[in-house]
Prior knowledge:
Elements: E1 13-17, H1 29-40, E2 45-49, H2 50-56, H3 65-73, E3 80-84, H4 90-103, E4 108-112, H5 114-118, H6 120-127, E5 133-135, H7 141-154, H8 157-165, E6 171-173, H9 180-189
Helix pairs in contact: 1-7, 3-4
Amino acid sequence: MVFLRRQKVNKDIVFINPLAHVRYEFNPLGLQLLAKSCKDNGFNANIIDLANDFIKENKIFDNSTKKWIEDKIKDIDSDIIGITVMNASLPWVEYIIKVIKNEDKNKKIILGGPQVTALQSELFKLFGNQVDYLVVYVYEGEQVIVRLIEFIKSKKVFLIYRIMSIQLMTIYKLSTHQLVMRKLISALLKI
Length: 191
């Protein structure tokens, strides 16, 4: 008998649907669209659906919840993690970020979704240097995420110009604590 060892595929990006304080299953269509867009553009993408897994596994919110989250996300095989943020999930998002950064400070974290769009400046204050990018949905996230992954992976100046020219003013880099994109766009367009 021959045993085939399953090879672990490194993901370009892993999306996380965090826990929320609701007890019904829902289909994370936004994350599914983002993952499909990534795959259509040649990137490996995966979704960790904590919200629905929690319900399917008949979990309850108690002292074991944080350990359960840690076990689910401890082996993320990507340097880029995208997390959707909604009102009900914000406390869990904060904990997920803490776990990820404690595991590997070099992983890039992108936050997007309704809460990020609604409360940009508050999230700047809340997350400081823990989160690398906020994506505010003025444009379609399926287009923005692909360009952002290209940018993070390449770090080439010509690509930055290309990103700016397709109107990615919606991405905010948090590690510098400033709205980098608007200033960068005007500077790059003068070149």
